[in-house]
Write a structure and sequence with these properties.
Blueprint: H1 9-32, H2 42-63, H3 67-85, H4 87-95, H5 116-120, H6 122-137, H7 142-167, H8 172-181, H9 183-188, H10 194-215, H11 221-237, H12 239-258, H13 265-288, H14 290-308, H15 326-342, H16 355-373, H17 377-384, H18 388-407, H19 411-417, H20 422-430
Length: about 450
């Protein structure tokens, strides 16, 4: 990337323009979605996201020599040039990439060529396409795009904070830390990266799902279409996260409608037995399904590649392999989940790059132990599993942690993939059953 262009007059003007646009959007959101518990943290949380997005950009551009952020930005720039040169070609490229025709089908010496590895990898290229829309809106301004993406991440996070503090029994400070101030989540998921897109879309889909289920009584066809669109985009960016968002939601539906049978214990027992049998049967069917086996084979190839290919350097961890059967999946899950949620340990000598992650792992270990030794642990657990949102968060964390721990092998990859699960995991660990206050 040409660093001269990063500090041009056009860059400054675009940043100023978008600063004022986003300020008024943020001002509206703060007025519309606010309560006494969270209001004073709005601008602090927003500034925190923007600050870490800038740190992310500076680290990659000026310390690591560009890396992924450079490749994604170059791809977006090339796509913008394609739009100016051939608008219909750009629209066709957004909709579908004809890889059989080669990279020269739409790109030439006038438009430039995107980095080959980005173009060849479908998920990375889809992320570049989405980024090209943002870069076009900011007139190809790198810093304005960074500001725009960081703000969209914050706005989505703020909606989650508002709804959870308004409708669920979590401590408001824990909710704000989880979604607004968690360091590694903010670093990896606030700047120009595929992780930011996945994180924002994931939160937005979860938000819409629970608006439909319990947070809002309005159920329109437009909300359904919006959820389908978000799910489609997530599938194109990171398939297993899209599936991990939808699967636990069915459990939340069961909890939601099962609670209505609490006054009929026999019917409730039969309902639960039916649901458990359905879950076991569903797990067996899904485990043996061709798509699941394909995902497992892909995960095993990824794991093997990261473990043995000398191209992938960096701190690694070792993990047992599985055979892809339901029993194999269950046996591999505890080790994979533990690694994803609690490593790297503070005692592991991995260098300065992982110090923050090691401190976060230490915090999560401490909170886990504190949750388990609490004298009201069983009361807390019973209350947790009666809530649609907490049972969803628990299952979602397990699924993401399993896939992240099993496929990553490199700690540098692990800390990025697990980021989406950490806010929900932190909420579960800090949950305490509300004390009932008696009135005389």
């Amino acid at each position: 990337m040409n660093q001269v262009q990063l500090f041009s007059i056009a860059e400054v003007l675009s940043v100023v323009l978008w600063f004022f646009i986003l300020f008024w959007v943020g001002r509206y959101l703060r007025m519309r979605y606010n309560n006494d518990q969270i209001g004073k943290f709005f601008y602090l949380g927003w500034g925190f996201k923007i600050f870490f997005a800038l740190i992310f950009a500076v680290v990659y551009l000026f310390t690591l020599g560009g890396g992924d952020i450079n490749a994604y930005w170059e791809s977006a720039t090339v796509l913008n040039k394609l739009f100016l040169d051939n608008p219909m070609g750009y629209i066709q490229e957004l909709w579908s990439t004809e890889r059989s025709m080669g990279i020269t089908f739409h790109f030439n010496s006038e438009t430039g060529y995107p980095p080959g590895w980005i173009w060849r990898e479908a998920e990375a290229w889809n992320a570049a396409k989405i980024l090209s829309i943002f870069s076009a809106l900011t007139f190809n301004s790198f810093w304005a795009t960074t500001l725009l993406i960081a703000s969209l991440v914050f706005f989505t996070s703020w909606l989650m904070v508002y709804r959870i503090t308004s409708n669920e029994a979590f401590n408001s400070k824990a909710v704000m830390f989880a979604f607004l101030f968690f360091p590694s989540v903010t670093f990896w998921c606030s700047g120009i990266s595929k992780d930011s897109q996945v994180y924002t879309l994931a939160l937005l889909l979860i938000y819409q799902l629970f608006l439909w289920l319990k947070w809002d009584r309005k159920r329109s066809i437009w909300r359904v279409l919006l959820m389908v669109s978000i799910f489609y985009l997530l599938l194109s960016l990171r398939q297993f996260i899209a599936l991990a968002i939808i699967a636990p939601f069915f459990l939340s539906i069961v909890v939601r409608y099962g609670s209505r049978l609490s006054q009929r214990p026999i019917i409730l027992l039969l309902f639960r037995l039916f649901v458990y049998a359905l879950l076991v049967s569903g797990f067996m069917l899904i485990a043996y399904a061709e798509q699941t086996q394909s995902l497992i084979r892909e995960a095993q190839i990824t794991q093997s590649d990261f473990s043995q290919n000398p191209i992938y350097s960096g701190a690694k961890y070792e993990l047992s392999t599985m055979d892809g059967t339901p029993t194999g999946i269950l046996l591999a899950m505890p080790e994979s989940v533990f690694i994803a949620l609690y490593r790297p340990f503070i005692t592991e000598n991995l260098g300065l790059n992982f110090v923050v992650n090691q401190l976060e792992s230490l915090l999560l270990i401490f909170l886990s132990l504190w949750f388990l030794i609490n004298k009201r642990v069983f009361s807390n657990l019973r209350y947790l599993f009666k809530s649609e949102f907490t049972i969803y968060a628990f299952t979602f964390v397990l699924l993401i942690a399993f896939m992240a721990g099993y496929t990553s092998i490199l700690f540098g990859v692990l800390v990025r993939i697990r980021a989406i699960a950490l806010p929900f995991f932190f909420l579960l660990l800090t949950f305490r059953k509300p004390k009932i206050t008696s009135t005389i």
